[in-house]
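Allow me, if you will, to draw on your knowledge of protein folds for a short while. I have a record of one protein: its chain in single-letter code and its fold written as discrete structure tokens. The full record is reproduced below for your convenience:
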Amino acid sequence: MQRKVAIAVLLIILLLFLTPQALQAKPEGKVVFILMDNVTWEDIIAANDPILNDLVKNSSIGLLNNRGFKMPSRPRNALSVGSGLRAEGSAASFEEYNATEPYGDELAMDAYALRTGKKASKHQVVELGIASIVKDNENGLQEFVPGLLASTLKQAGRSTAVIGNSDTSLDYEPESCNREAVAIAMDSNGLVEYGDVGKDLLLRDKEYPFGIRTNYTKLKQRYEEFYNKADFIVVDLGDTTRADLYSRYAFKNQASRHKNRAIHAGARFIKQAMDFASNDTTFIIASLSPPGSNKYPLKLEYEQLTPIIVHGPAFGRGNLISNTTRREGIVTTIDIAPTVLSIMGLQKPINMSGSSLYSIPIKVDEKGLDSFNQSAVGIKGTRRTAVLAYIYIQLAICLLAALVLAFRKMLNHTTVTLLETLIFATMAYPLLSFYTTKFASLADKGFIVTLLTLAASLVFASILMIMRKNVLNPVIGITAIIVGVLSIDALVGAPSFINSIFGYDPIRGARFYGIGNEGMAILIANTLLLYGMLLEKYRNKWAIPTGLLLCLAITFIIGFPKIGANTGGTITAVFAFTVMLLLTVKSRLTVKDILVAFLAVVLVLGGFVAYDVLHGAATHMGKTVNLIETEGFAQIAMIAKRKLAVNFMILRYSTWSYFLLFALGLLIFLWFRPVGVLKGLLANHKGLSIAIPASIVGGIAGFAFNDSGILIPAIMMSYIIPTVIYLMIWEQYHSKG
């Protein structure tokens, strides 16, 4: 009996002292992360290195979204990998040294002790700016822990190492030290267990940028030494970064020559590293930062996606993907830390926002990835031109129409036909822009893409006008087509939403799958108009049930985690559609009706969240619930603060803000001039009279619960206002005749 009690006590003690990570850990292989920075797939293809070519053919490859907090920089990107979150970081905050390297008149380990109150061992690498890095990220917008990857590994009994640097001088000048790779391997105290990022890993060579190059003989020696000590090894090849930084001083051909040579040298090291490693080692070769990126945030026009190659037991030939993107061939920097932990049999901490990479076994196509990246760069530059053209053209048309309505003498067949065609062209423009941007050869030609979209919109509108037999038919036709096409697109994986003008940008990386906020606003606005027009035209017992089914279907498409996965869009849709349905059966809303709308939001959103949580919490809905469950309701305040910060920024700087103010001002103008016309229009068109307040309520909800803020009500009004003007023109012209 005593023996059984003793065994039981011993087991309890073991369970108390073992961490959850240790209990879940499996004896998996090592991970080697090799940083070949500041290159693109175009650079790798141009280098045509036989080692890399063979590696690409037999590995999982993809494009890496490298955006840190706001715009990318080398420190932010490395810090994002090490923390598993999009990180902020001032260039001045990063100071990385071997513990025994000189720092002013003392050793780096002594400066580290003075700044942190903690001791570093001689074999460690220190981040002297760790306190500043923490302060950089104290913005209250996310629960940030620097070095969370290494800290999690350390808690599970695993160790990390970092080797190499991208320094541009053999002197210890702060501006010349580029050792951001330390941020990938350091723990939350700014320590890396093993490593060497010192100057002895460089050689003087006047034939190379800045007169120095990587000493690959010593780099290999350090790698083999630390491979046997650490489980996660980070290697900065260095030469590709120096070649890119030097390109500003060299002719284009010479800069390409330097970069090609750096890629070839790096490829030889990669082969040596793989040959030395055991078969259960996974290699991640990536460029975390695009060309032109250094310590400081990269300018918007130079952002692009970069290459990533993963080779290991679970990563054979294929394309990379993750639950963060759900897009074949596209992954993010915040997916790397969860992948490292997964390979080692460890669970990621709840506040790591990324997901593990996995591979889709298909024939790899690095040229296809490069083409997509170039298209994404082009469309990113085109987007502002095309959206501004849409806003200003619609403003001009609406203003012209308002003046024609105010001065009825201008109403004639030619003017009316022209205005009506232009109005429907602006309503068709966003839908057609999802598809005109798919012409890859035109992606970077913003003016041409805009003209092509405008031309297609005019043709579309002209066909509607030719086929018109009833005043409501064009509105029903265009809204039905928009709702139908966008719904089908969402149901088949939303291929047209990514990399399009009114879709989402894979480079900025706010969203990669489902329905974006612009598409959501377009879909809701047109659903409200379609329901209203159908209700008005077909006044029978089937009108309301049909409208109800339509609203339920669109809400499902927008919010269901496997389709639209748009949480804020779900709230917006439920508010708008509930108000629409209530106004269908009653003349005005009461406080009780608003409570009904809130209850509907809770029920619908709760159902979607429950589904997501039960199926792995792959979307923002489920992840947020998990965060609240583990971190408490402070997470709600943090999310609200983040959304308010983004909304306030958009409100101040977005052209959509001015558009919305103009639209509201135009509605007020039309209410008074011509006198009584708008009031009479709403009395005659029951469907429109309930679509407008439903759109206003939906717009307010969209502004409050979406990161895009003012953009949501503005886009919704860009469909409501033209419809109002079209019907006013029709009634005024025919009453005049």
Summary: The chain has 27 helices and 17 strands.
